[in-house]
Design goal:
alpha/beta; 44% helix; globular; 9 strands; single chain; Spore Coat Polysaccharide Biosynthesis Protein SpsA, Chain A; seven-stranded mixed β-sheet; two-stranded parallel ribbon; 8 helices
């Protein structure tokens, strides 16, 4: 298996069909789709099960512990692909970028490829202004603290070699901060990665689960935790 596409879902019944059809039509390598359900209370699970009847590339894993971090850990544990990419179910990520991710990580024998929505060739559509301001401030702060020029740490959509993710365990984050933890730990261990431009599109259906007020302390904890790890690894 070349690629595992990990899709965390929580109450995304209206987006499942679009994401499955887009993957089937656009992804050009051998892949499996791992839906990780985080205690959905709508019809998400039933929609996925219906797709499973027609498509043996689709798997459904249910979290036993709540949280996006648990979804990521479950995705890694149950994956069969040499490479793993985490994809949002809301359609915000560009699947043509996933093809570019795959060719870049494979052709250059990398541990990871980090996408940035904030490079010259990147395109962003319908990003909420307040969220964008907070994003830029925090990512700039992380770049300064880490003395690293990457500028989109918190973006979920990246690609990793599975063996490289196993090297950075344990993954401790509970929520969206897991997407900060993963790249920082790759950087801490001086694994090989490249940065490429990617596109981003605002959600058309459903409600975002991102709550900044609830998450700011978790992001700061993750940054401090990873910075402490970096210092220890330098000794």
């Amino acid at each position: 298996m070349d690629l595992t596409i990990i899709i965390p879902v929580k109450n995304e019944e209206n987006n499942i069909s679009n994401i499955v059809e887009s993957i089937n039509s656009k992804i050009k390598v051998g892949y499996e789709i791992l839906f990780i359900d985080d205690f959905s209370v709508d019809g998400t699970v039933n929609v996925i099960k219906n797709f499973q009847k027609e498509n043996n590339k689709i798997k459904l894993i249910k979290n036993k512990v709540k949280g996006l971090g648990e979804s990521v850990r479950n995705g890694i544990m149950h994956s069969n692909g040499k490479y793993l990419s985490i994809l949002m179910c809301d359609g915000s990520d560009d699947l043509e970028d996933l093809n570019r991710y795959y060719s870049t990580i494979k052709d250059n024998d990398l541990d990871a490829v980090f996408g940035s929505r904030f490079l010259q060739k990147s395109k962003i559509y319908d990003y909420p202004k307040f969220k964008l301001i907070l994003n830029r401030i925090f990512n700039y702060f992380v770049s300064l603290v880490y003395l690293n020029m990457y500028n989109d740490y918190t973006n979920a959509f990246k690609i990793y070699k599975k063996d490289s993710l196993l090297k950075i365990e344990p993954i401790v984050s509970e929520s969206f901060n897991v997407f900060l933890e993963l790249p920082l730990k790759i950087i801490n261990r001086k694994l090989n990665y490249e940065i490429i431009s990617i596109n981003w599109y605002g959600r058309k259906d459903g409600v975002s689960k991102f709550k900044f007020k609830e998450l700011r302390s978790k992001y700061l904890f993750t940054l401090i935790y990873c910075l402490a790890e970096k210092i220890l690894l330098l000794r």
